[in-house]
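Here is an idea for our session: we take a single protein and study its fold together. Which protein we use is up to you, so please pick one and set it down. Once you have written the record down, we can walk along the chain together:
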Amino acid sequence: MNMQQMMQQAQRMQEQMQKKMETAKADLAAAEIHGEAGAGLVKVTMNGQHDVKRISIDDSLMSEDKDILEDLIAAAVNDTVRKVEAASQEAMGAATSGLGLPPGFKLPF
């Protein structure tokens, strides 16, 4: 394979990867990811762009101290953020699978 063919192949691979990455980002942005704290007493829903869409607080918590409620909300948000990050890593990994990149290779180039 000559240099021009290699460059063309690299260009095609880059275009394919870009399309897959754009699709993965769009899918992730539209996804709803759920986290919780206090055994489900506080639930948070985010999209893949870390926008909080909903927070659900069980009525039984309304009689608790403000500090407890604040801690549970923070824990639920943190749980959801971790799940969004995991979903993002998974989506980007799926988008680059099959490209023959070495393990640990970071994108973009």
Helices lie at 3-30, 66-96.
